[in-house]
Amino acid sequence: MTSPIVAVIGGGQLARMMAPAATELGLTLRVLVESPEAAAALPAHEFVVGMPSDADAVAQLLAEPRPVALTWEHEHIPVSVFEAAQAAGVPARPGLEALVFAQDKIAMRERMTELGLPNPDWAHVTDEASVTAFLDAHASEAIVKTARGGYDGKGVRVISSAAQAADWIAGRAEGGPELLVEQKVPFTRELAVLVARRPSGDVAVWPVVESIQRAGVCSEVIAPAPDLDPALASQAREIGERVATELGVIGVLAVEMFEAEGHLVINELAMRPHNSGHWTMDGSVTSQFEQHLRAVADLPLGDTSPRAPWTVMANVLGGARQDLSGALAEVRDPGAKMHLYGKGVRPGRKVGHVNVSGVDQQETYDRAVAAAAIVREGAQQ
Amino acid sequence: MTSPIVAVIGGGQLARMMAPAATELGLTLRVLVESPEAAAALPAHEFVVGMPSDADAVAQLLAEPRPVALTWEHEHIPVSVFEAAQAAGVPARPGLEALVFAQDKIAMRERMTELGLPNPDWAHVTDEASVTAFLDAHASEAIVKTARGGYDGKGVRVISSAAQAADWIAGRAEGGPELLVEQKVPFTRELAVLVARRPSGDVAVWPVVESIQRAGVCSEVIAPAPDLDPALASQAREIGERVATELGVIGVLAVEMFEAEGHLVINELAMRPHNSGHWTMDGSVTSQFEQHLRAVADLPLGDTSPRAPWTVMANVLGGARQDLSGALAEVRDPGAKMHLYGKGVRPGRKVGHVNVSGVDQQETYDRAVAAAAIVREGAQQ
């Protein structure tokens, strides 16, 4: 059987979790990994070792038999990759014209403004004076971000004086990333909407979820977002569909938002499967990983309906347990769906997650958190 | 991270479908495949090419780092494999003392009789006279089976005269398999119960399903079995648990049964994931593939609850479409969960299956059958 190949850049857990979906669809997943020990290397159907900046490695990734599509698990994709894909006749999905809005927060804010979508107050800043001016207009509190390169709380800093951003401003002058400041939105909680779009323009949207962050890192996700005003839920879904369509995204798009005093503010975009969508692996008819593959391979999109009233995802961040191989034996909740990434444990590193589905919101939440804690710390914590 | 290894013998779809479950559990699946083109080779985390009778290949399968368990996807496992596993200190699960009852239909019938479990009338036959005697006692209709080596209707023949079994009787005299005859049970339908058991003795049972066969091959499975008398459902589950426990099965066990005039008759046993359990991949909280890995690796068993009122599995048997790679684009039912095995198409060969879950039994059935037909024949059939 001729098995269509999907090429993926990145060896982390997001690429790893595409492999089971590819297997069931009868697709071959060919992955560019940073090392043979990367989380995605073991389950990948084929892999090439190298960085996305390595032209030879990218050439191998795109070699005959040619992939039907090239995609990735993170947005740090150099322009050279798009050039190589074009030369090889392999569609890169999403395309650079869409991806730039997930790579560059200034470009994103400008585009959201053009589309009339809800941004926080923000400004592109180039020196301490412009930072101070923004702070003066916002009660001496703002968030400074590097336009490129941030993730999981990195490249983001809360400041009350321009001096607290002096190193980044100096770095920018020396060729470092551009900077923007944003109003610290007085939000009540964080929401996320996950959308998939295929080249035909078909879009599929999952229920809006609540994302609970601790220290800048996603800790739990509750699907659907509890007690969400139906009008806000509709608005969040419309924002997701609009961003996917207007930006021409192909694949899965996550739009992270703040809920603040009855309205929504866009926080960040991700153009790939996203932590806020891990609940779909067990809680939705179609997982975000299957859907991403369907979208980039231009296949009909799957049903995004939930399979249970509530699904809660709890991340496993590196903790006391150094070797996770013993964890499975200790998690005795028969409905705790385990997803371990095969990564070495470091403090705070995402090394797995647990999904639990149920009919009672609090019980479902408690079970997911308890199972994740056992994986992280051991049963005797 | 130290990833526990599970070794599997057999390169077909059943081993293939263990790979996604192993990935999510953070287990490494090391598979002995007949060829690098086998269905399980692509998604296997590691593979060794060889037959189970090849001592060198089995030694590689069991080599350091040692697997935590050895299992398989079919029952044709020679005694030499058990000896090699014992010498290597790797537990073979299920053990030979259990597996023999799935390998040898005469041993199985004798053991079921000892346990007081419902057999059809049957007899071990060695010559035409004993076959004729059985036929005379059963209205000139019986089923003759080879005790070993049959599957999917092979090694099974309906006869009305001993002459129709003459070739097998002659073969037996020349060292071929032993033979048994069984009463042709006047059944109304076929049921199956799937059970998992771990070394601790813990057992988990899925809902009883109806299995629809065409030409001796499973065509569809409806979960749960429609309109099944609750007393018969309980009895079927008890038979499954009893067989698993009394035979000391480790892993997944399928007991195929006939429903005949309000009672049950055991048809066959399989000690591995089974076609009648493919619905669990989408229709149950825990799939049979995850559960088999949990059981053989001695991990807590998962929840066997259904995720929907009805799930229907429809097999894709090889038909008009020679290259399945185009099939995904044509199946437009967003809830049709596709499972393609990456195998070359031959007429009647199992090359994939489709699961559909829903709230209406007939609609769910029709959707599954329609999607499987599109994969097999194309959308223009």
Tell me about this structure:
Two copies of one chain form a homodimer. Chain A folds into three domains: 5-92, Rossmann fold (3-Layer(aba) Sandwich); 121-183, Dna Ligase, domain 1, CATH 3.30.1490.20; 189-377, ATP-grasp fold, B domain (D-amino Acid Aminotransferase, Chain A, domain 1, 2-Layer Sandwich). Chain A is built from 13 helices and 17 strands. The longest helix of chain A is centred in the middle third of the chain and has 18 residues, at 230-247. Chain A has helices at residues 13-16, 18-25, 55-61, 79-88, 96-103, 105-114, 128-137, 166-173, 230-247, 280-283, 288-296, 327-330, 361-377, and strands at 5-9, 28-33, 46-49, 69-72, 122-125, 142-146, 156-159, 179-183, 189-197, 203-205, 209-214, 217-223, 251-260, 263-270, 310-317, 337-340, 350-358. In chain A, the strands form three sheets. In chain A, strands 9, 10, 11, 12, 13, 14, 15, 16 and 17 form a nine-stranded antiparallel beta sheet that branches. Helices cover 31% and strands 27% of the residues of chain A. In chain A, helix 2 packs across helix 11 and helix 5 crosses helix 6. With 381 residues, chain A is of the alpha+beta class. The model of chain A has no long low-confidence stretch (mean pLDDT 96). Chains A and B meet through helix 2, strand 16 and strand 17 of A and helix 2, strand 16 and strand 17 of B.
C-alpha Rg of chain A (nearest Å): 21 Å
Tell me the series of helices and strands of chain A, N- to C-terminal.
EHHEEHEHHHEHEEHEEEEEHEEHHEHEEH
What is the first-to-last residue Cα distance of chain A?
A: 50 Å
Q: Could you say what the CATH topology of the largest domain in chain A is called? A: D-amino Acid Aminotransferase, Chain A, domain 1
Strand content of chain A: 25-35%
Gross CATH architecture of the largest domain in chain A: 2-Layer Sandwich
Largest sheet of chain A, in brief, is: 9 strands, antiparallel
